[in-house]
Amino acid sequence: MVVLAGLGVGGALLLAQPRPVTPVPGSAEVRFVQDMRVHHEQAVTMSVLALKVARDRSVRSLALDIQLGQEEQNRQMEAWLRRWNAPDGAQPDAMHAGMMGMATREDLLSLKTLPVREAETQYLRLMRRHHQGALLMARPLTGSGQPLVAGLARQVTATQTGEIRTLDSLLHARGAQPLPAPHGMEH
Fold first, then answer.
1. Are residues 133 and 101 in contact, defined by beta-carbon separation less than 8 angstroms?
2. End-to-end alpha-carbon separation of the chain, Å?
3. Closest alpha carbon to 123 in 108, 138, 137
4. Per residue in 135-162, pLDDT tens?
5. DSSP tag of 141
6. Residues 6+ apart with CB under 8 A from 36
7. Which of 102, 114, 137, 169 suits 145 as a labelling partner, its CA being 20 to 30 A distant?
8. Is 134 helix (H, G, I), strand (E, B) or coil?
9. Domains in the chain, start-ordered, CATH in brackets?
């Protein structure tokens, strides 16, 4: 009897808990997922380009980790957007892309045309700035009432903070300076 009463109280408490509301198109959560999808797509593109030219094992390993991790997150975000009946994100204009730490078309081209060592260093610099942009994007959503989005924002923050430390270490070993951080990034 006590067990049944306990189950009944527990069930009532569960039912009384607020359920996360599906985010609506145009909400901060949907915009974050849309923008982060586009952002991740570029990180995957940069990593694939780096894997085609890089010879340094550390650079290749990091590029592969970033590619695989962000492809997986993109699959999750695609599924969420479908479930929420929200469209995929669109490419940002140049100003917004710069604020997101994204590489320009010329930056991407340089990964194909620079000599190997310089292309590796350019990848490290571009990815560092790219990750800094992701941190700026994720920070406001870490406390979202939408658990999936808050979890993703925290995961992006943790993963990419760690990868920035690795990027810094690799840049330091090469005697290379990082690119300036995106606008709004504290040093």
1. yes
2. 60
3. 108
4. 999 999 999 999 999 999 999 999 999 9
5. G
6. 73, 77, 89, 134, 137, 138, 152, 156
7. 102
8. helix
9. 26-174 (1.20.1260.10)
